[in-house]
Write a structure and sequence with these properties.
alpha+beta, 112 residues, two-stranded antiparallel ribbon
Length: 112
Amino acid sequence: MKKSFYLYTILTILLISVCTVQTAQSESYSDKLQTWMGHDIDEWVDKNGYPKKSFVAPNGNKVYVFHRERPGPIFYGHGSIRPMPNYHCTTYLEVDNRGIIVRYRWEGNNCE
């Protein structure tokens, strides 16, 4: 019983730590993207590479989609091996007819 209590306490602390790091990471990445507002998309491409795809938004602006992914860690425990979820980040940059970044959005668990 005492062992279970300690295990739950440790797991709770780890979960809170992960959530705190994820929140800090998301604020940091949003701050980074905010600094790109008003810049030419070619500057972003020169620094970060080519987009995975692009499409035209309903308002006529072009949206570039940048995606990166890498495998997550492998968990070894109690005789079992389980891969954890992949790390990924998808960034959407909307540009106006002059190629200037006017809006962004992102999603993922590894955006930095």
